[in-house]
Amino acid sequence: MENTTLISLAEKYGCPLYVYDAEKIISQYERLKNAFSGVKSLKINFATKALSNISILKLMKSLGTNLDCVSIQEVQLGLKAGFAPKEISYTPSGVSFEELEKAANLGVKINIDNLPMLEAFGTKFPEIPVCVRINPNITAGGNQKISIGHKKAKFGIPTNQISLVKDIEKNTGMRINGVHMHTGSDILEVAVFLEAAEVLFSAAKQFKNLDFIDFGGGFKVAYKKNDSATNVEEFGSIITKRFNNFCKDYGKDLSIIFEPGKFLVSESGNFLAKVNVIKETEFVTFAGIDAGFNHLIRPMYYGAYHHITNISNPNAKEKKYNVVGYICETDTFGEDRMINDIKAGDILSFQNAGAYAFTMASNYNSRFRPAEVMVYKGKDYLIRERETMEDILNKQIEVDL
Ligand SMILES: *Cc1c(COP(=O)(O)O)cnc(C)c1O
Question: Which atom of ligand 1 is nearest to the CA of 184?
Answer without folding.
Answer: 7
